[in-house]
Amino acid sequence: MPRPYQPSLLRILHGATALLVLGAWCSGLMVYSRFDGRWGRLPFALSGEWIDIHGTVAVVLWPVALIFAGYALTLGRQRLRHPANAIALLALALAVGSGKLMQEDWLRDGELNHGVYSVHLLAWMAVAGAGLSHVGAVLARGGWPLARSMMSLRLRAQDGPGDWWGQLRRHFTR
Asked: How many C-beta atoms surround the C-beta of residue 65 within 10 A?
């Protein structure tokens, strides 16, 4: 059986999105534990400006997520047939969209009852579930070879950064 291969543009966008989502999720956990904690807090003291860290990660995630979504809806459309992929993308969209609507001072001021904040908390939990489901589905579908193919640095001919515009052009001119 041949080794699975994922297009380089997918690997770069997916990897950047995954790292930023993980950073946003973890910093969001710190923010939640420090400022909200209605359903529990972390068992250690938190110091630092976690709201600012979370916001900075989100500012970087926003354009990366938009580009990744654009890729997923065009060149990666076939991959969205897998429910775990589609659900992960929808959870990301809900988290980023609701986060953009929030005011960072709400939590600092103890204002925990905004509807957008509740949606953001729901999205935060959905991202966790969708991420776990996504990894589980990848392992179920292709095992470790498929998972490793997402982290591979190997490039096929016609799949380097210089070829990405041609790939996009071919997709849109079909």
From this structure: 23
Domain that holds residue 118: 8-40+47-154
Look up the pTM and report it: 0.90
For 91, 105, 135, the CA distances from 59, given in Å and listed in that order, are 17, 16, 25
Question: What's the domain count of the chain?
Answer: 1
Tell me, yes or no, whether 116 lies in a domain.
Answer: yes
CA distance 134 to 21: 13
Round to whole Å and give the CA distance between 133 and 139: 10
pLDDT of 109 over the 80 cut = yes
CB-CB neighbours of 42 under 10 Å: 12
